[in-house]
Amino acid sequence: MIERTGRCLCGAVTFTLVGEPLAVRVCWCRDCQHLAANGSVNAMVPAEALVVAGPLSEYIKQADSGNVVTRQFCPACGTQLFAQSSARPQFRMVRIGNLDDPSSLRPGMNIWAASAPGWACLDPALERVEQQPAPPPIHRSA
What sequence ranges are listed for the domain CENP-V/GFA (predicted)? Predict the structure, then answer.
């Protein structure tokens, strides 16, 4: 089984992803733009595939999709780490830039592309979804 590790900027929070993500996406929603000053690359994983060590703080806000999103970050350095939507509590979003090897995953889709600024460099090879896509199916191995 593939495991990937990551951490916040100061190292107070570490995490392990167990298995492959269900999707890796560049998100251009306005909230992600505020958090990253650009699009944000996120992996969608089953909640049980994310193992976290260290303290987390939370910020809860209603997103443009209408869902309530809980964002988790390191209370010491402020690094944005994870998110979870009320519409899909079985999934967690992990910010790929916090992986020890962020090149180990590649995005396959731009989401909320309608919100991207005019100067955004959206890879034309990636699928483009104007707003919120449907969640990918979970494939469980027997």
Answer: 4-113
pLDDT tens digits, 28-83: 878 777 887 778 899 999 999 999 999 999 999 988 778 899 999 999 999 999 99
- For 131, residues 6+ apart whose C-beta sits below 8 A from its C-beta are 64, 65, 111, 112, 114
Residue 136 one-letter amino acid: P
Q: Tokens in use for 52?
A: 């976290």
Non-local (6+) Cβ contacts of 62 within 8 A are 68, 69
121 falls within a domain: yes
Query: What is the CATH number for 78?
Result: 2.170.150.70
DSSP-derived pairing of the beta strands 14-18 and 50-53: antiparallel
| Cβ-based neighbour number of residue 97 at 10 Å | 14
Whole-structure pTM value: 0.82
Q: Domain total for the chain?
A: 1
Alpha carbons 61 and 139: distance in angstroms, whole number: 30
